[in-house]
Write a structure and sequence with these properties.
Rossmann fold; Helicase, Ruva Protein, domain 3; Zinc Finger, Delta Prime, domain 3; 20 helices; disordered N terminus
Length: 455
Amino acid sequence: MDLFDNSNPLGESGQSSRSQPLATRMRPVSVQEYVGQTHLIGERKLLRRMIESGRIGSMIFYGPPSSGKTTLAHVISREIEAEFVILNAVMDGVKEFREVVRRAGEQLKLYHKKTILFVDEIHRWNKAQQDALLLHIESGLITLIGATTLNPFYSLVGPLLSRCQLFELYPFESDDIRLLLQRALADSERGLGAYKVTVSDGAIDYFTEYSGGDIRHALNALEMAVLTARENKEGIKMVDLDVAKESIQKRYLRYDRTGDEHYHFASALIKSMRGSDPDAALYWLTAMLEGGEDPNFIFRRLLIFASEDVGLADPHALSVVNSAHDAFEKCGMPEGFYFLSQACLHLALAPKSNSTGVIFGVAREHKEKGTKPVPDHLKDKTANTKKSRYLETGNASDDYRYPHDYRDHWVDQQYLPDSLKDTRWYRPGSQGLEVRRWNRLQQIRKQQKENRTDD
């Protein structure tokens, strides 16, 4: 493929081939035609000013699929007078990039023309490939426009990020999708205006709602509906709600189990359960499952939650989730929905306590101040016995008092090293069973205080 034959998918005239999908044919060819992303290209916004001034710096577009990243790059290529080159990071590598650099040098030397390099799915390039861009970006030979569906702060190297302006694109709003659908129906050159067709408001609403913010999905579904709809006696194609439903039989769910959405949805699930909202918890749970998430990943997050966020307020929660996971492994889907639902609802409805996180505070004590020696009376009795016989001294373990020999199975005794004997890390929650256990601990500490006063 000629890397330098990519000025615009519609050609310089803006005309399209009927063999192309409707979503490709309807790509805007100017900033004025572009719909959505008003936070970037609305009047007086930074990117709009950059385009209108013709002074484009290196930038990264990041956002979900079909949010208009590639389309916006094509719009920029038509708006400014620069050589525009496209590389796809999945198919193209160092060899193709070197050719771009060579040709960019020629364009600058012979025609004083800058080169804009658009790298689609730039996160697919490894560190060395990304680093190769830096020299030529800094020299001004190439202006980079990178596009990625992943969080650039995780997927791109720091030096590249520091040399690029970051622009985040969002899914299309419902009003944007309706406008673009109506535009496609009215456009007789690139769209469907050449057909005698009537599309009901209900069908437009259905395409909009079920596209999940993906304009490509909505436009291609509309095209399928128009092309396959039967003509009435007047020769008019009628696209009603029933035809629309046949064209999109499954709602498009914007979820990528390997990208940012994977973590965003998991975070929403956890925070909904933590907030004791069972309806929201089930909503995000099913969204993950409908998006193809591995149920075992969900169960792992539920197990962590049972200990981290429910903890001692309901110690049985961990067993419930573990049992649900075992049942899921035995029965599989679709019955597995019951076990996921039971575990999710149990955690959302359970009293909450995060007191188990105290262990990280204790761990910091060890890291920052070191581990103190074990008090003599807590040391292993067998080892102490051998030591006492060898040195002909008393056995320090004889000072240990066995709690089960005392009333309520408790006896006042020091368990921390002397320098830490009054340290308290544990802070209880105020919910569920933990309250009863905290009350018992308070009674113990009260007795300890009285004993010290008596001494």
